[in-house]
Specification:
Elements (H helix, E strand, L loop, with lengths): L1 H16 L24 H9 L3 E7 L6 E6 L1 H10 L2 H43 L51 H23 L6 E2 H8 L7 H13 L3 E2 L17 E3 L2 E3 L1 E4 L2
Antiparallel strand pairs: 1-2, 3-7, 4-7, 5-6
């Protein structure tokens, strides 16, 4: 019985020596410890504490209930080295180092995947941000100069008649007196929202409509820009008319990222009617 107890203590002290940050006194379901969580190991654990072979060196706060971590005392080191060949202790150290090397490899692989994901996010944002701009009204061309009279004198412009008078591009209400190109730009937001709702209502197939498909279905004129398209979707979402589900896959796999929409910290890539 004494030999079995001593062997249990030596095994525990060897594990403790290879873990400078300490180990729980008893092992858990998935975590190592100095002793197995069995009634046969409790006398050995009590003797280690009573003989001051181990002491508390820290606390493991990963679990809901923090657990004390135990490390070797000077008496524990003397007891271990007096009873065990130092070569065996070194072999235990080598096994722990090999295990740590594998864990470091996994951490490096995870860090590389995170770096690739962040680079993909950066590339997607770089593609999307330039498109998030409002449509601009084109500046009207300046009037052509009056032809010169004979003798080189500049003629005075004649007063506009009621028949050929063109109103100022910027007078009156919305769209009144605008050039044809500018009028088309201003009419887009007014017709775009109903068109979005109508297309989503009539569309067959999956409930969530990809934004590239929706943009191409609504691009009836060359004046529709991605910026105006995104502004319309944001307003419809804020009004509760549609929802904008986010892209859940890896960012580097995002097709046609220029149509994706930044909302808060998420990247919306679909649109669907709210039920």
């Amino acid at each position: 019985m004494a030999d079995k107890l001593t062997q249990q203590i030596l095994d525990a002290l060897g594990r403790c020596a290879a873990e400078p940050i300490g180990l729980p006194l008893f092992a858990g379901k998935t975590e190592p410890g100095l002793f197995p969580n069995a009634s046969s190991a409790k006398p050995a654990a009590q003797k280690c504490l009573a003989d001051d072979l181990v002491r508390i060196v820290g606390t493991d706060a990963k679990n809901k209930a923090p657990r004390d971590l135990y490390g070797l005392t000077e008496k524990g080191w003397e007891f271990l080295l007096a009873a065990v060949n130092p070569k065996q202790v070194l072999e235990d150290f080598v096994r722990v180092l090999e295990a740590r090397q594998g864990e470091i490899g996994e951490l490096l692989s995870t860090a590389r995947r995170m770096a690739d994901s962040l680079q993909g996010l950066k590339d997607a944002v770089a593609r999307v941000l330039p498109s998030v701009t409002a449509a601009k009204i084109q500046e009207p061309n300046p009037p052509a100069p009056f032809p010169k009279k004979e003798g080189g004198a500049e003629p005075e412009p004649s007063a506009p008649s009621a028949l050929d008078f063109s109103p100022s591009p910027f007078r009156g209400g919305v769209g009144e007196g605008l050039l044809p190109e500018a009028t088309a730009v201003l009419e887009i937001p007014a017709i775009l929202a109903p068109a979005v709702l109508a297309y989503l209502a009539d569309r067959s197939g999956p409930t969530d409509c990809p934004l590239p498909e929706l943009f191409r279905a609504l691009a009836l004129t060359d004046s529709l820009t991605i910026g105006a398209f995104h502004d319309c979707l944001r307003q419809l979402c804020a009004d509760g008319a549609i929802s904008l589900p986010a892209w859940t896959g890896p960012l580097y796999a995002l097709p046609e990222p220029q149509y994706a929409l930044l909302i808060g910290h998420g990247i919306a890539y679909y649109a669907s009617l709210r039920s």
